[in-house]
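Final paragraph of the annual report: two paired records, presented back to back.
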Amino acid sequence: MYWTAAQQLAHMTVNGASLRTGDVYASGTVSGPERDQRGCLLELTWSGEEPLRLPDGTERTFLEDGDEVVITATAPGPDGSRVHFGEVAGRILPAR
């Protein structure tokens, strides 16, 4: 990563983002240079040029109507424990 967490926070707030105690912010996708270190769907499919094979055998290059996206997160806690932030889920709906 190019910026520390403190630098990211300073960048956000100096540009007008409000921040309160308890707010969570993140750096976004942090990927490595190797193929197995790609972090998001756009990178995993190499901008749609390399389809991703799903466990049911279907292939995808981008999200499609009806797809469900689930995001979970953890962070290091005290004494080697993990802090769990729960889960956020959403379904891709067709355009109106």
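The closing record of the year follows.
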Amino acid sequence: MKETNLISILSAYNNLDKDSFDSYLNYHGTKIKNSELKDLQVFVDHLKGLSKSIALFDKYFIGYSIPQIGKEFDLLRMDQETIVNIELKRNSTEEAIAAQLQRNKYYLGFLNKTINCYTYVADYKKLYILDPANILQEVSLRQLIRELVSQKVKRIPNLDSYFNPANYLVSPFNSTQEFVKRKYFLTKQQEEIKNDVLKQLSSPKHSILAIKGNAGTGKTLLTYDIANEVLNTKEILVVHCGYLNDGQILLRDNFAWDIIPVKVVMHQDLSKYHLIIVDEAQRIYTSQLNHLISQVKKLSNNIIFSYDGQQTLRKGEINNNAAEKIEQELTSNPYELTNKIRTNKEVASFIQCLFSKKRSLEKYKYDNIELNYFDNYEEAKAYLKQLRDEDWKVINYTPSTVNALPYEAHNLEIESDNAHTVIGQEFNNVVAVIDGHFYYKSGYLSTRNYKNNPYYHPTKMLFQIVSRTRLKLGIVVIKNQEILARCLEILNQK
């Protein structure tokens, strides 16, 4: 995205044909609606009436959106010490204005600059600011002019470099303290689902609800945020379909959450709970699911199933098809999260193309993918240990309890986490190993030549591992030219 002059953008809007104007916006990397351009015109005309300085209108980022997060700002102007953010509204309530500016202040706060967040309401030609105490105040445009004039703005070649998406991706499990303190904001889609779910839960009748979404869509944060909200006034129970992780144990032991593994749910008294949440419900046994459904109907309490149908790890879970059975029991349509907010676009594209040769290759720089090849397990394992020391998260394949499997030869003994223990968690930099047993069958990634059939599906475990990353993904290929060739084919599309 390039900085632009506000007068220049409006001149182009008012004088160029649509194709030329769209091309001009594309050159600047700017997206702005016609209605927003009209509000911008009112704002610029108001400023022009008070100041003749052309520099006042220069070097703005219009409609900038933080990568992965999707948080958008109407106008941003930065120098080394300060950020001025201006939101444009046709009309709005003071409550809505204050809420938006608080969000903006939060997202901009990680840049360690003095932040001034304004909203200009075009219908009334009024300007509002959020003061240091987060109180909304109406101010004169002259105050804004003084701040803009005092800025010593210079060209910023890459605004994205100022924003680290990891700062905003709060996980209930890996950033538990920040989660409990509510140091996060939901996306617009998450907020809409949350409000509708809370409305359903307030009904006198029992509710059987579902929140589903693929890896990286913010399903876990939304589910636990709803739990946190309800917990203020009502009793809740979280049932996790897997091993309890450190974050869940912290919520249970330090913050008085009722969280249990699903294996003990059949012996749990459910009568005192207003809400039961079943996390990673795609892994639930049919008998456990039937028990929960029958109890909710009998006790007239509420239940939310949170799941991702792709995150199954063994043949039995695939065949059970818990998602389909859950959706037959729902009291309203399932809520589906569709926007990826955890995994950046290049990593998501790489993962999709790795698992399916039928996916169209996309041209990215792929700066966040690291690929290394080894011809033996010993040297690969030594390299994994080195990466672990460099703060990469090396996730083991889940070992078998019956027969030793080939992938256990590259598992790290010093690493306690495996594909099962990291379910629902996220890490900045993740490493995954692909050995010689992987190949493409009818265009899709699969495995072969196991002496003993693995209880847990290796391809499913690999997907679980790679989908835990937030920023960077490391792939270590061991003696597999076919997989290496596919990785290089993806990465060389520049």
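The chain has a mean pLDDT of 91. This concludes the annual technical report; the extension proposal builds directly on these records.
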